[in-house]
Design brief:
- By secondary structure, this protein is an all-alpha fold.
- It has two domains: 21-59, no CATH class; 65-171, MetI-like fold (Orthogonal Bundle), CATH 1.10.3720.
- The chain contains seven helices and no strands.
- Helix 3 packs antiparallel against helix 4 (98-106) and helix 3 crosses helix 7.
- The radius of gyration is 26 Å and the shape is flat.
């Protein structure tokens, strides 16, 4: 079929205000199943006596929450920095072997996070990890290893930012390819 200037192929427009009732029902059902555990937790928390709440808040809760937030911020910053840097290197430079690097940098996406955590604990645990034990056997005394926050989690997170930034850099026109 040929199109001329007078004949235009038009697609039917869907209104954004009308939504299929079956889709609304399916989304509501999924939301209800997701909300059940949260509702249970809130009900159990409301039934707890004041002494339990005081004991909980006086315990290490605030320290653990601070550690968790620090871990989240450190891993996010590290993943953004490494992912953006690697995306720039593989998309906007003439890095030798950049196609191989693209594949290698995306490989951590194939590793489930719990496997990465187990490997991290097995290798780098301060007391009992394979690397600290090997260094202790080599030097005859414990060797303190740097333990940056999120060291074992960040490499598993950077492929997410790498894929997002690579796509952005592929879509955006570049002035020139930067040589290394």
């Amino acid at each position: 079929m040929q199109l001329t200037k007078s004949s235009r192929l038009t697609l039917p427009r869907r209104s954004l205000t009308r939504t299929n009732p079956r889709l609304i029902f399916a989304a509501g059902t999924v939301a209800a199943f997701v909300a059940v555990p949260l509702i249970y937790i809130f009900i159990r928390a409301a039934e707890a006596d004041l002494a339990a709440w005081e004991r909980l808040l006086q315990a290490r809760l605030w320290l653990l929450m601070g550690n968790t937030l620090t871990l989240v911020l450190a891993v996010t910053a590290g993943a953004l920095l490494t992912g953006t840097g690697m995306a720039w290197l593989t998309e906007r430079t003439d890095l030798p072997g950049r196609k191989v690097f693209r594949w290698m940098l995306a490989l951590p996406l194939a590793i489930p996070p719990y496997i990465g955590a187990i490997v991290h604990l097995t290798l780098l645990r301060p007391r009992g990890g394979l690397i600290p034990l090997a260094l202790e056997a080599l030097f005859g005394r414990p060797v303190p290893l740097p333990a940056p926050v999120g060291f074992g989690v960040q490499p598993l997170s950077s492929p997410c930012s790498l894929s997002l930034m690579s796509t952005c850099l592929q879509v955006q026109p570049s002035a020139r390819c930067m040589p290394i």
